[in-house]
Write a structure and sequence with these properties.
By secondary structure, the chain is of the alpha/beta class. The chain is built from 10 helices and 6 strands; from the N terminus they run βαβαβαβαβαβααααα. The chain has a 6-stranded parallel sheet, with helices on both faces. It is globular and about 50 Å long.
Length: 224
């Protein structure tokens, strides 16, 4: 399970458009076969490496909603391809798919702009959940990856947070944007953004994902 809030059902009237990038044809074939069984997700293209993926995306009349990206590939690796996609097409979400769960590798992928990180031995429903989460602006992590990141976080410093900042942290852990937080707390979006920055600074964390994992570890939110 992801450490973020449960996802409500999607409107399946318009399927989520997914583009597959992996240097193993058998992996792409398996992913395509799985998604063909789902009503709310459709595969709109595939590529064998990051360079081919960028070329293919540039030629599409309609961009995909999510790119499912292998990280270790020839010519242009998944990290570089993810960074390029997010620079060229910020509206396109990328979910990393790899065999490695080291915290440093996960951090690099998330910093490049990945909206999820899955291991290649993940259950099929986890892949679908990650794609759906990405379209909602939420980060979905493989359970093993989430545990790895959680263990890598700094020692607890909850006492340094004000009650309002703890409240902000809970909202961040539920995957809510600054705009959503502002609406829920009846404050300006700028104030919400400032609170989030203060929380990250006080806890010595680099991203909202790390903050969410920290909140789960400290029992501020449930990881179920």
């Amino acid at each position: 399970m992801t450490p973020f809030a449960p996802l409500p059902p999607l409107d399946t009237a318009i399927p989520i458009r997914v583009f597959l990038v992996d240097d193993h044809a058998v992996v792409r074939c398996g992913m395509r076969a799985f998604f063909e069984m789902l009503d709310d997700i459709e595969v709109v293209g595939e590529a064998g490496d990051g360079e081919a993926a960028l070329a293919a995306l540039a030629s599409l009349d309609e961009l995909p909603d999510v790119v499912l990206m292998d990280l270790l590939m020839p010519r242009l690796d998944g990290i570089s391809a993810t960074r390029a996609i997010k620079q060229l097409y910020p509206q396109v979400e990328v979910v990393a798919l790899t065999s490695f769960s080291e915290a440093e590798r996960v951090h690099v992928a998330l910093e490049a702009g990945a909206a999820g990180y899955l291991l290649k031995d993940a259950e099929a429903d986890q892949v679908g959940a990650a794609v759906r989460a990405a379209t909602r602006g939420q980060v979905h992590l493989d359970p093993a990856v989430a545990r790895t990141l959680t263990r890598s976080l700094a020692a607890p410093q909850r006492c340094s947070l004000t009650p309002r900042e703890q409240e902000i942290l809970v909202h961040v852990a539920h995957g809510r944007s600054n705009r959503d937080i502002a609406s829920a707390l009846v404050i300006s979006e700028r104030t919400a953004r400032t609170h989030v920055s203060n929380v990250l600074g006080k806890l010595g964390l680099a991203s909202r994902t790390q903050a969410a994992l920290w909140a789960v570890r400290e029992g501020l939110v449930n990881d179920a």
